[in-house]
Amino acid sequence: MTPDERDDIRRLWKSQADDPPGVSLEIVQTRSRVLERRVHRRNIGEYAAALVVFAFVLPRIWTASNGVLAAGGTVLLAGITYVMYRMHAFGSARTMPADLAVRSCVEFHRAELERQRDLLQNIWTRYLLPFWPGMGLILIGSTLEHPERWPFALGTAVLAVLMAFQIAWMNKRSAKTLQEMIDRLKENPMAALRTDPPSLTLAQRLSVWVMMSLLGATAVLFVMQRFFPNVKAGILSFAGLPAATPNAVFILLLLVVGVAVQAAWSMIRRR
């Protein structure tokens, strides 16, 4: 046996001796793949949403009725670009190398959890605040163009702030959950890896459903008013509401429908 072969055997024996007791390579790799898929799906959704905003805002920068609106659209797209860059740089999921020992796999998985925790903890600077300057300029530009619509602009600003705090609260709760998983992984890797991650509470699910439904309702209202005005009148007539009903009532109607659909889908997935 050559000296190099003896060194390889010694390193292999040492790595196996340091492995956490009761932890198999398969379960660590499985947990890592689950985390990677979840992060990948989240990022794909964020990138898709950013592309939709780009496709909607970019053409309107050149046709904006005043300079404030054009500046707001430009600043908003710059903020979205910054957010997507930070998410790609600090929130992308890395694939666990296949040739790692068990302890190295556990350390790799813990490092990935820590990266996602840090991303969620810095939600204000990495995600929320970069949107506000552009959105603020757009609201100001819209108010300058139509001064009589200032209550709508004020309501939109208040809604945006409330939604930002809602998103921040959800992400802080998720960061706390990740920190608990990291602590358990340090204290007892076997128990931590064999325990399923905690699911969202009913209150958390409801808040997510309301937030997503509100965003969807606002988008649907905009599309209907711009491209299908008769559809909105038909829905209001079917619901027994007058066609002159304010948009807020129509959004509330869509919000209720959106929450109900998401709740039904969640129950179907649980079966």
H and E string: HHHHHHHHHHH
Number of helices: 11
Count the beta strands. Answer: 0
Task: Using the CA coordinates, give the radius of gyration.
Answer: 25 Å
The tally of structural domains comes to 2
Please summarize the sheet with the most strands.
Answer: none
Question: Mean of the pLDDT scores?
Answer: 77
Strand content: under 5%
What class, by secondary structure content?
A: mainly alpha
Low-confidence runs of at least 5 consecutive residues: 8-17
In short:
By secondary structure, the protein is mainly alpha-helical. The chain folds into 2 domains: 178 residues; 73 residues, no CATH class.
Task: Walk me through the topology.
Layout (H helix, E strand, L loop, with lengths): L2 H15 L7 H38 L4 H25 L10 H20 L1 H6 L3 H14 L4 H38 L1 H6 L7 H26 L1 H10 L8 H24 L1
